[in-house]
Amino acid sequence: MANKSFTTSFGRQIPFVEGYLEAHARNPWENDWSDQEAEGFMTSPMSYSSFRKDLVEYAVARKFLHSLGVKGPWGSALEIGGREAVVARLIKGEGTEYVETIDLKPYYKRLSTPLFKTRMRDVFAPKVRGIRVPRRLAGLANPKYYDWAQSQAREFGLQPDRNFGWDIKMVREPDLGTYTIGDVNTYDFKRKYDFVSAMGCLDYFDPEHLFKRVSSILNPGGIFVFLFEYWWFPVNTTDVVGHFPYVTQRLTRDDFIRYAAENFSAKEADWLLKRRDYYHQGNVLVPKQYCDIADKNDLYVLGEHRCMTLRNYFRRTSMTPYFLDQFEDSKLKDVMEDIKQFRGDVSLADLKTGFMMMAFEKRGPRKPHVQERIKEVPKLR
Ligand SMILES: C[S@@+](CC[C@H](N)C(=O)[O-])C[C@H]1O[C@@H](n2cnc3c(N)ncnc32)[C@H](O)[C@@H]1O
């Protein structure tokens, strides 16, 4: 008989929420998950919707940096896991001299400079009955023309506003710059950078190792920024969905293995564990820990920003934290209670965060004595 609950090693009985698993069109165990793209993918042009997503990611991170008083252009910049190099081209177009992208495969083939320009025009001046019209004017005639450009911002917990992010101006040719095909964990970088970004890919890496690498290639005063999908969201990038909300977050690894064995076939259970473990190679963190790792590596934290999912915005799961918390059998308070059994550092805010952004500055060499500067400190009061 099918199970109705799962009992954790801490003796908590978590009731299954009927229909929760089935409500998600995920768990495609029949297609063994992998990073293999379909044949022809590498040569097919980048779609408008993926382009728009990358553009908005950049705009969100840029706005975050501006709020911290950090502004380009830079002398040199590196974008990690930059795929089609949308972010690299935007950084370049905004005036940075040397721009490099590193990724495992030559995704840049999907986005030529002319296509980049066309896609930018499609965002900023969409075609209305075959004629290009500035987006706001087009929007006056039909809201869809700014809605589709700005709705993407909602994914990052921002209520779209008319001016959101669209002050990006290309002051220099947005060409590809350098595209390095390589693994950022092992690649032998020949230079240092003033700016390193990692958009939507931090989950692939072991943060301890990555932060050390990034620190080693940043110039003193250089900036490291990332935006990525946060582990503590009900359905995170592992795509794992269980019989109750927050299944990956709510169980220890051992409990997760037992839960999978009790409720799925051996093949499915294998897939689930593989998916669960890919994220940071199984080492899951909260912001304080990213800061501690950064600090060990001479990266001084400048700020963090949680992209809290809007109440009415659906992505990855139509059952957002807000939605779940309304029901008796899926209260976030209970999820927290379970997590507390094995971790004391997770908060309710973590359970509601869809994306996380953080920015760091590479420290210069330590100065010998603070006394030197104390004399210059203005007296307050
Ligand atoms: C989910 S995609 C994100 C792409 C894009 N930056 C975005 O925000 O949509 C992650 C990218 O990281 C790349 N990647 C994963 N591991 C990597 C590694 N060790 N070194 C370099 N790139 C890596 C993948 O090839 C992939 O293109």
Furnish the topology, listing elements before pairings.
Elements: E1 5-7, E2 13-15, H1 48-67, E3 76-80, H2 86-93, E4 98-103, H3 113-124, E5 127-128, E6 131-132, H4 135-141, H5 144-154, E7 178-181, E8 193-199, H6 207-217, E9 218-229, H7 247-250, H8 253-263, H9 266-278, H10 287-296, E10 299-308, H11 321-324, H12 332-340, H13 348-352, E11 353-362, H14 371-374
Parallel strand pairs: 3-4, 3-8, 4-7, 8-9
Antiparallel strand pairs: 1-2, 5-6, 9-11, 10-11
Helix pairs in contact: 1-5, 4-5, 8-9
S-adenosylmethionine binds next to α1 and β4.
Task: Characterise this structure.
This protein has 381 residues and is α/β, with parallel strands linked by helices. It has a single domain, classed as Rossmann fold, CATH 3.40.50.150. Helices cover 34% and strands 17% of the residues. It is built from 14 helices and 11 strands. The strands form 3 sheets. A 7-stranded mixed beta sheet has the order 7-4-3-8-9-11-10, with helices on both faces. The protein has a two-stranded antiparallel ribbon with strand order 1-2. It has a two-stranded antiparallel sheet with strand order 5-6. Helix 1 crosses helix 5 and helix 8 packs antiparallel against helix 9. The protein is globular and about 60 Å long. S-adenosylmethionine binds next to helix 1 and strand 4.
> Sheet bearing the most strands, described?
7 strands, mixed
Low-confidence stretches: none
Average of pLDDT = 91
Q: Beta fraction of the residues? A: 15-25%
Q: Determine the fraction of residues in helical runs and give it as a percent range.
A: 25-40%
List the helices and strands in order: EEHEHEHEEHHEEHEHHHHEHHHEH
- Give the CA-based shape: globular
Distance between the termini: 74 Å
> CATH class, please?
Alpha Beta
Reported CATH architecture: 3-Layer(aba) Sandwich
Domains (count): 1
- Biggest sheet, spatial arrangement of strands: 7-4-3-8-9-11-10
What is the CA-atom radius of gyration, in angstroms?
A: 23 Å
Number of strands: 11
Count of DSSP-assigned helices = 14
Query: What ions, cofactors and ligands are bound?
Result: S-adenosylmethionine
CATH homologous superfamily caption: Vaccinia Virus protein VP39
Kindly identify the CATH topology. Answer: Rossmann fold
Class from secondary-structure proportions: alpha/beta
